[in-house]
Amino acid sequence: MFDRNMRRHHGPPKWIFFVVAMVAFVLVMGGVVMFLWNHIIADITDLREISWLEAMGLLILSKILFGKIGGPEKKFQKHRSKWKEKWMHMSEEERHAFKQRWKDRCRH
Question: Hey, where are the domains in the chain?
Answer without folding.
Answer: 14-67, 71-108
